[in-house]
Amino acid sequence: MAGSKFAYVRNFELPDPLLPGTFMILRIDGHAFHRLSEEHNFAKPNDERALQLMDHAARDVMTEFKDIVLAFGESDEYSFLFRKSSTLYNRREAKILTTVTSLFTSSYVFNWSKYLSDTPLKYCPSFDGRIVLYPSTTVVRDYFSWRQADTHINNLYNTLFWALVLKGGQTTTQAHAVLRGTVSSQKHEMLFSRFGINYNELAARFRKGSVLVREEVSTETEGVDGLEATPLPVSEEVSEVVSSGAPRKASKKKVRVRTTIELCHCDIIGDEFWNARPNILAD
Ligand SMILES: Nc1nc2c(ncn2[C@@H]2O[C@H](COP(=O)(O)OP(=O)(O)OP(=O)(O)O)[C@@H](O)[C@H]2O)c(=O)[nH]1
Ligand SMILES: [Mg+2]
Questions:
Q1: In what residue span(s) does the Thg1 C-terminal domain sit (predicted)?
Q2: Domain extents for the chain?
Q3: What letter does residue 92 receive in the DSSP assignment?
Q4: Which of 51, 76, 105 maximizes ligand 1 atoms within 8 Å of its Cβ, making it the mutation to test the pocket?
């Protein structure tokens, strides 16, 4: 069917495919969250409620987009890794980027009051987003190591900075001056000797950031012929249900394999995390 005489303008819309067979990492970052955190009195250096809200929004994104195999969050940012062979929206960059970023943003706003119930949202927060393609598993691992190392560096700095200001009575200018040029071991030492804070005992959430990963959980349930096994909680995705065990007449064992999205605050720089989850970097 012929279009109107105006239809030619479509030709200006150019395709924007992302290279196939590469790892996509989409990172969102809060726009001007320095101001947002001040205006809404976020706790310093870390506001656990605000971080939990970020985790909630990231989980909503992962629930919607099954091709995301891993997410890592710290401060006002979250990175999402898509499986290498993803064909989501035919790998159209703008479609993927805008849909994920807007879902994250709307979830952040939608769920704000669940986490910051005594702090009404004063204005509309927004997030920027980018997609970067990585050619190999080595670079993907280095990417996540980079973000987690950044979490540690920032948290150590901010923990000492705010201890100097809030407990040590220094101005922010003085605190920055004290910290200038210090190395990690000196910061640890200052935190302990001046404020009695053992950095390694701070919450893992603050030191390691948030890791969201899909895990498969198998559960065996006894069923009686003719009766269904007890249903699983509806909040979980049920990916597979198989029967197993000896073919007895009265009772049948069913193994249900569910995929859940697990939150942890674990190390993702070493090999252990990745070796235990080879599916993350598989095709
Ligand atoms: N007090 C407090 N501030 C936080 C927390 N998480 C994030 N922030 C603030 O958010 C900022 C995030 O850093 P950036 O993303 O570099 O800064 P930004 O103001 O968002 O700037 P753009 O991303 O460039 O728009 C931090 O510097 C803090 O000011 C928190 O848990 N507590
Ligand atoms: Mg930001």
A1: 139-270
A2: 14-135, 216-229+237-261
A3: B
A4: 76
Q: Which atom of ligand 1 is nearest to the CA of 48?
A: 31
Q: Which residues contact 226 (CB under 8 A, 6 or more apart)?
A: none
> Could you tell me the pTM of the whole model?
0.90
| 27-77 pLDDT tens trace | 999 999 999 999 999 999 999 999 999 999 999 999 999 999 999 999 999
Q: Which amino acid is at 26?
A: L
- Beta carbons of 211 and 71 less than 8 angstroms apart: yes
Q: Domain 14-135 carries which CATH code?
A: 3.30.70.3000
Taken in order 157, 48, 260, 78, the sign of the CA dihedral is negative
CB-based contacts of 229, cutoff 8 Å, min separation 6: 221, 222, 223, 254, 256
CA distance 162 to 166: 6
